[in-house]
Amino acid sequence: MKAVVTATPNKSQATRSRVTLRRVFGAAAIGASLLFAGQAAAQQVFAAASMKDALDDLSAAYTKETGKKPVLVYGASSTLARQIEKGAPADVFISADQDWMDYAQKHDLIDTASRRNLLGNELVLIAPATTSDKVDLKPGVDLDGKLGGGKLAMGDPAHVPAGLYGKAALEKLGVWSKVQGKVAAADNVRNALLLVARGEAPYGIVYKTDANAEKRVRIAGTFPADSHAPIVYPVAVTKQADRAAADPFYKFITTPAALATFERYGFTRP
């Protein structure tokens, strides 16, 4: 799938395109964002889905300050990295883990000198806000029993960073083998969040910032920091970037004021 809209499709094609975009990116208004792709005046920012609320806020502040409105494309870091590899017009890439930024670097997609660790996060177990039980996430926790016949919503553990962190944490706690058959694998962490928010899954694994952003869920437990690799969000300018457009926004989101905004949404310093 190309991330650039180069022609006006007919009604049938447009419908198929919208369905495809929802499946690939799983973020609200993603199709509308992509309609701006190719406009030279806009910064094309590809960012992990978990950053949406904070980055939307910062983008609005940047627009107010500069008069320029970045195009924000959210999705799983794996999907975004592969889209950049296929030629999607990204100027800035923010991944939810080091592995997919490593992938971008290995494939010569980013300016290595611009790569830096931007943010950190925590991994939590969520449940619908209408429930009240707490889960002590210690080795041997009976998560399978708590699920009953329900599903455990999480990012796809095959490639979505939140899912990879989640699988690692459950393996460390010794319970992955018991719950893997009940996993509802989402194409990004925000879709896993929605499954729990809508009551379609009794529990889910997301980042703390995602839980903070959704009133219909609550944090039932926090995974020990040593149960998974540190959650780090690296950022870099891409090799194909329009540096006149990319550099100002890149610098803006790395300022102390921007980092304070990220922290207000629950992100941590890496």
From TrEMBL:
Claim: Signal is one of the keywords in the record: yes
Assigned keywords, A-Z: Metal-binding, Molybdenum, Signal
Superkingdom assignment: Bacteria
GO biological process: molybdate ion transport
Pfam assignment, any one: SBP_bac_11
A Gene Ontology cellular-component term: outer membrane-bounded periplasmic space
InterPro entries registered for this protein in UniProt: ModA (IPR005950), ModA/WtpA (IPR050682)
CDD domains reported in the protein's UniProt record: PBP2_EcModA
Leader peptide range in chain numbering: 1-42
Family to which this protein belongs: Belongs to the bacterial solute-binding protein ModA family.
Name the UniProt record assigns to this protein: Molybdate-binding periplasmic protein
Organism: Pandoraea pneumonica
Species classification: Bacteria, Pseudomonadati, Pseudomonadota, Betaproteobacteria, Burkholderiales
Gene, per the UniProt record: modA
